[in-house]
User: Fold this.
Amino acid sequence: MKWFFFYLVPIFGLFAQHKIEHQSQVWYGYYLTYPINNQWFVQGEVHTRHFADPLVHHQNAFRAHVHHTFGENWDVSAGTAIFLNTPNDPRISTRLAIPEYRPHVDVVYRHGSTAFRIDHRFRSEMRFNRGTDLARTKLSEDVNFSNYRFRYRFQAFFPLVKHIQGKVNTEILLNVGQENPANVLDQHRMFAGLSIPIRDNLTMDVGYLHAFQQRPNLNYYDRSILSLMVYHQMN
Assistant:
C-alpha cells in the first residue's frame, strides 16, 4: 500500500493549494431528433440551468447538429451551439447573459447488445465569447476566441426493471489554447440515473450529475446537479 499513499499525498496536496467552492444546480434539457433517411439525421437541443441555493438562473443553451451513421456502430456529426452564460457566482447581482458560440465535431462508437450498450463519444469544440464593457453590464460587438476543448465520454446503458434502463457515464473535458496554460483540466463529470420510457418515441432521463470544474485561476467548482433530460424521436 505504500505506493498508493506515495501518489495520493501529492494529489491531495495539489487540491489543498486551491479553493474549492461547492454549488448545487438543476439542469433541464430537451432533445429532438429528426431522421432524414437511414444514414442521416438532425438533432436539436434546448437547455436551461439554475442554482438551487440561492434559486438563481445560470445558463440557457441551444445546440443543433447533423449526424451521419456508418453501419450500427459509428456516428459522425457536426454542429454549433450558443450558450447564454450568467456569472458562476449566484450571489453577484449583475447577471448579464453573455453569449458563447461553440462549433463542434463529434465521433461516437457504440457496441454491445440491445439490453446492454456502451458508447464512446469524442468531441472537439471551439469556444468564442462576446465582449463586454469593463463592468460586464453591456455587450460589445466584439467576438473573442477563448480556447479549444477536447472531450471524451464513456457511457453505459443496462436493464433494470421492465423497460427502465440504468445509465452511467463519466466525461473528461480538457482545454487547449486557453489564456492560462496551467488550466488544462476544464471539467470532470460523472452521472448516474434512470432512462425511463414515456412513449414509444419519448424518453426521460433522471439522475445525479457531479461536475468538478477547474477555473482559470486554478480554483475549483464542485457541483452537485439534478439532471432532467427529455429525448424525443420524430418518426
Remarks:
- The longest strand covers residues 139-159.
